[in-house]
Amino acid sequence: MAHESTYKPSTGIERWLDSRLPIPRLMNDQFMVFPTPRNLNYWWTFGAILTFMLGVQIVTGIVLAMHYQPTTEGAFESVERIMRDVNWGWLLRYAHAVGASMFFLAAFVHTFRGLYYGSYKAPREILWMLGVLILFLMIATAFMGYSLVWGQMSFWAVTVITNLFSSLDSVVPGLGTTLVQWIWGGFSVGEPTLNRLFALHYLFPFVIAGVVILHIWALHIPGSNNPTGVDVKTPSDTLPFHPYYTIKDGFAVVVFCIVFGVLLFYAPNWLGHTDNYIPANPLQTPPHIVPEWYFLPFYAILRAIPDKLFGVIGLMGAIIVLFFIPWLDTSRIRSVSYRPIFKWFFWLFVICCLALGYLGSQAPEGWYLFFGRVFTIYYFAFFLIIMPVVGLIERPKRLPGSITESVLAKHGGAA
Ligand code: HEM
After folding, report:
1. Which residues form ligand 1's pocket by a CB distance below 6 Å?
2. Which residues of 310-325 are buried (b: 16+ CB within 10 A; e: fewer)?
3. I need a surface site. Which of 168, 269, 287, 358 has the fewest CB within 10 A?
4. For atom 6 of ligand 1, which residue has the closest CA?
5. CA separation for the pair 72, 84 (Å, rounded)
6. Does domain 31-290 have CATH number 3.40.630.30?
7. Where in the chain are the domains?
8. pTM score > 0.85 for this model?
């Protein structure tokens, strides 16, 4: 939100720096006095939680990389050595693996928060699209990281997912196969594949960090949305970011760390698959190839579609459609709290995503396959039909006149 700079350099060094590289001014204006809606609830703390988790993943990842060996002979053993022989290696590795799950959990909550409160609507379209780009980069990064363990599930996940590109053979004969072999760096998943997966897994988190900076920049132009979806109108609708939201975000990060800690110290393998403790064996396929939990809804969509090429299109489409939400939603107002009809469809969509997650973990046959198809249809219908149509026909509830008015109505006190 455009606001006058309040920064006053008080020492000689501050004045010297301010006319050369004014980082203290930037920090003061953007993270200390920044006017922030006064009614943000705890769903707005997940951005800070995500920033914290990105830091955790980068720090633990760099130290892991100091002990990891990206060769088909050495990879699995080097991970075991980290677990058994490297000082605190077990903690580093579990923090990184459980951390990936916690990172996705936070990203999903953050995304659904945006969906519920209409934070993707004008003027925040670019902010939202950068978020979807981050989600896409997170998916690619997690996939590549999982492959590095070089256990059975790692190896076969890489085989299955890279093979999806071969579906392009049905468009241009030979194109898919050529592309897959180019990705592999050979005629099967092997050492060159592992090497490039490692190189890119190291690179991508820094690309994500760059996009996060753009994401927050794009947030600070219009400022945060809020639970009413009503724009900030007067200064009394806002609070300075510090100390009000620094303390709220800090508290949320601590609570999040307690949940993270419980998983990390008491159930570090709960979300993983036992087969990934078996070294990769190209001659033996595991009985069920299942991805990590955060990919299951997408996996369910892939398998619900009988044709390979269309399955891949469905898989990619499930993410790509998110880029277009700002234009697919025709509602005049932002927050689902004031949308009596759309609210039902929204919660059904949440159930749909959870159901797809469960179905993705089951063998694609019988009722599992049937419901996989039903929920896949609902997933796309939600964005492509329900969002545009309901927005046009629904009559929203009366919005509060301002953020301050809604806060006072709730707490019945003076401003
Ligand atoms: C590494 C991952 C991410 C980081 C570090 C991050 C960081 C942040 C931060 C710090 C904020 C401001 C605080 C808040 O509103 O929670 C924010 C807001 C926002 N983010 Fe993200 N984000 C990430 C991923 C995503 C994703 C995947 C999406 C959606 C697809 C997204 C969409 C948004 C939107 C729409 C807002 C504005 C919310 C509002 O003002 O109502 N972000 N993000």
Report:
1. 44, 46-48, 50-51, 54, 107, 110-111, 114, 117, 119-120, 124, 127-128, 131-132, 134-135, 208, 212, 215-216, 219, 224-225
2. ebbebbebbeebbbbb
3. 287
4. 47
5. 20
6. no
7. 31-290, 292-328+340-395
8. yes
**Nearest Cα residue to atom 9 of ligand 1:** 47
**Which residues form the catalytic set?**
220, 224, 248-249, 292
Q: Interior CA angle at 68 toward 67 and 71, to 5°?
A: 140
CA-wise closest residue to 321 among 390, 394, 389, 385: 385
Predicted local confidence at residue 384, as pLDDT: 98
- CA neighbor of 321 nearest in space, from 291, 296, 301, 343: 301
The 10 Å Cβ neighbour count of residue 247 is 10
Q: Average model confidence (pLDDT) for the chain?
A: 97
pLDDT average, residue stretch 289-303: 97
CA of 123 to the centre of ligand 1 (A): 15
Q: Which of 4, 403, 29 is nearest to 233 (CA)?
A: 403
Using pLDDT thresholds of 50, 70 and 90, give the confidence band for residue 3. Answer: confident
Q: Tell how many helices (H) and how many strands (E) occur in the chain.
A: 17, 2
Q: Is the dihedral of CA 105, 110, 114, 116 positive or negative?
A: positive
